[in-house]
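Hey, can you fold this?
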Amino acid sequence: MTTGPQRRKVLIVEDEPSIRSVLYALLSGLGCDGEVADNGQQALALISRDRFDAVLLDLRCSNLRAEDLVPQISEIRPSLVGRVLVITGEVADAKTMELIEQNFLLQVPDYQLLQNLRGWLRALLGIPPSPNHVA
């Protein structure tokens, strides 16, 4: 019996339930499994015991500072380097912008979240557009 391709697994680190639900539904629509962490400590615990193909990270939801959390994710799972998609509001904080640039993190501003997230996830996870997808 032939099995289909393995579903990709993405960790959602988001404290806002409504945004978590939207992200979870989006992942499901892309054929991915999602798992949720409410904060940075939960995310690190999940990453250390399970394999993920990518992380969707709200930098502002964590009980850990972003400049501490991102390097810990990379240390625990080097396979996630370059596979962390940062979701945050407009970045006015120079320190946060520096962190994003230093770690080559992708950033999706809130106002473009639904508009662009599907495309970023497809590219990040190597998922081709569906046949009925309109560019």
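Oh, and this one too while you're at it.
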Amino acid sequence: MNNIKVAPVKPIIKYEDLDKLDIRVGTILSVEDVEKSDKLVRLTVDFGDHQRKILVGMKKERENPKEIEGKQALFVVNLEPREMMGEKSEGMLFDIGYSDKIIPVLAMPEKPVPNGVRAG
């Protein structure tokens, strides 16, 4: 493992603030290139009762972004939709490492669980 300088812990928040985040498990059905972008790929994610398109800046982070197809991961699903490169992203991949400038990895359940189940 690479040694990193551990970031300081962020300021204390109220327990109720954490409850505002809706983090759910979804299965990544497909990973498609966003042609106009040198960073973005488009994930189609199954959340059990619906699917969403979520744009993720992982094109430069992985040699083959399609390697995550079929994997379950955590997603923040109650963020306001965001337009990037003319496309709407309907959530955010909850990955590990990006903020600390290491190659991010998926935050994923240790074993399969139903799509749409909540974290927390």
